[in-house]
Amino acid sequence: MLDAITLDMDGGPALAARVAEAPTARHAYALWEAAGKLGPCGRELCRRTAGELERRAAEAAGASASPVAAQVVLVDAAGERMIGMFGRMAR
Questions:
Q1: Per-residue pLDDT tens for 53-62?
Q2: 69: containing domain
Q3: Is 21 helix (H, G, I), strand (E, B) or coil?
Q4: Predicted confidence band at 36 (pLDDT cuts at 50, 70, 90)?
């Protein structure tokens, strides 16, 4: 998924291939940061994660729409800096 995000955020095929081979998400984060793509890729990761959380909540509730509004925040490894966020305030 991280390589697809890289491509969708105009990271190019070379960076996407390196991200796909990254042994951990932390390594992918470092690759995005070095390429100047951490902001857009981080926000897109949050958007996709929120969407998946809402999809699963809807599925668990047996509903077509999620009964909850997911908010996702990506912070750096030290937990000191917000990298990206996505979410809805309410459903």
A1: 999 999 999 9
A2: 2-87
A3: helix
A4: very high
Which residue's structure tokens are 């969407």? Answer: 51
Q: What is the pLDDT of residue 88?
A: 79
* DSSP line for 30-71: HHHHHTT-HHHHHHHHHHHHHHHHHHHHHHHHT-SS-SS--E
> CA–CA separation, 7 vs 16, rounded Å?
6
How many structural domains does the chain have? 1
Q: How far is 88 from 25, CA to CA, in rounded Å?
A: 25
Crossing angle for the helix pair 12-21 and 25-34, nearest 10 degrees? Answer: 150
